[in-house]
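Quick one: structure for this chain?
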Amino acid sequence: MEVPFRTKRMLNFGDCDISGTAYYPAYLNILNNVNEEFWEHLGWTWYQIMIKERWGTPTVHLSCDFSVPSYFGQELDFEVRVLKVGRSSLTLHHTVSYNGETRWKSKQVLAASDIDKHNSIPWPDEVRAALEACITDLPERSGAGN
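Got it. Here's what it folds into:
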């Protein structure tokens, strides 16, 4: 598996304000979709874990630093790094860029959670092993969002 995980997303009309600039709530929706793709890449679809296995990965912390605006029609590059795996937590770092220029970064903590009981649970052994195999450091001078 390639570490860190990388994917692309087009900035569509509905993701932007009237000036064509990316609207931050849309960024968070796009980020959520990137996370879903990351989990598929690991081997677990959200349908499988949420509907069949009855656990999920809600966000318990999120910080974002927006450094350069992005615009309608740009295809953004998303990089997802696993920084830390706890008993039931997962710390991710996201870097979003366009043509090699960083647009924004975020640090996100997810928690393994029982969907029916609404409490944290330890990562299943297979999931923990897959996440730990993805742990990577941030590159030097990674800037905000650390």
